[in-house]
Every structure is written in C-alpha cells, then in structure tokens.
Amino acid sequence: MARYGTVEYGEKQGRLTVLSDIDIVIVVPDPSLKNIDTKLAIRRRAEELGLPLEAPIDLKILTEPELEELKRRGLYREVVDVTPQASSD
What is the mean pLDDT of residues 33-43? Predict the structure, then answer.
C-alpha cells in the first residue's frame, strides 16, 4: 500500500507565486512502482475524484528512505500524511 502526502517546496524557498505547482509525494514500498504507469494511474484516480486535469500537480514517487533523505536535507519542510485508514467494518 502506498502512502500519499503533499509537500511544500517553493514556499519554503520564498518562491511561492500564482504559477507555483503543488508537489504531491507518493511513497511506495517497492522501487519498481516508481514508473509512468503508477503516475498515470494516480492522475486518472485524481481526475475521477474531481481534480481538474489542468491542476498544477507535480507527482513525485519515492520510497520511504528517499523521502526521509529529502526531508533531512531540508527540501521538504512539511509532509502531510493522508494515508487512507482501514475501516473498522
């Protein structure tokens, strides 16, 4: 199961403008999932959920160690974990 989250980058560097995009990191357990098919599946699902096709989204597919390294280097100030929770039904 992949973890989903958003990250902030341009704002941290004081470069936030109306042309800024939204970085979304998808954390995958297996590096083999870091491919175009995964990105396309995520974009299709986001569109099904109502995200406009022209939304300024930059998808980044990382493994947990890669994300932790980027956080350690200060590239991402905040990560919001939006991992779907298992239902208790």
Answer: 90
Q: Which pLDDT score is estimated for 31?
A: 93
Q: What is the per-residue DSSP string for 7-31?
A: E--TTTTT---TT--EEEEEE-SSG
Q: Where are the extended beta strands (E) located within 1-89?
A: 3-7, 22-27, 57-62, 79-81
Q: Which domains does the chain have, with CATH numbers?
A: 3-81 (3.30.460)
Cα distance between residue 73 and residue 84, in whole Å = 27
Q: Give the pLDDT confidence of 52-65 residue by residue, as tens digits.
A: 888 888 888 999 99
Decide if 2 contacts 33 (C-beta within 8 A). yes
Cα 28 versus chain centre, distance: 10
